[in-house]
Amino acid sequence: MDTSIKILIIDDFATMRRILKNILKQLGFKNLVEADDGTTALSVLESQKIDLIISDWNMPKMTGLELLKKVRASSEYKKTPFLMVTAEAQKQNVIEAVQAGVSNYVVKPFTAEAISDKLKKILK
């Protein structure tokens, strides 16, 4: 797993972003960028090259699913790995995310091991 990649972490809760950053740092990733919602994330994507997106599902302004659809519609990021983090493990949500092109998803609460496993699957 290439730990030099640039990862964008999107969540409206600062605590959740911090938890994800700590897990990613434990896994050896250092190049981490944060956004507090989908609209902020789009600005980040326009201003710098991102190699992996980890986004919460439920956020104000723009949901993770709406962001995923915009990312998949862009020529620059349509192939960028996208990990969805959600508190909702409802089958319909998972199906919607898969249809929209999500690379993988993880359900809250999650462990560092769960994040590591998902990243190994999508970054091989």
From TrEMBL:
Per the record, residues carrying 4-aspartylphosphate are: 56
One family from Pfam that matches here is: Response_reg
Record has Phosphoprotein as a keyword: yes
Which biological processes are named by the entry's GO terms?
phosphorelay signal transduction system
List the keywords (alphabetical): Phosphoprotein
The Response regulatory domain is annotated at: 6-123
Instruction: Cite the InterPro entries for this sequence.
Output: Bact_response_regulator, CheY-like_superfamily, Sig_transdc_resp-reg_receiver
Is Phosphoprotein given among the entry's keywords?
A: yes
Q: What is this protein called?
A: Response regulator
Q: Which organism is it from?
A: Desulfobacter latus
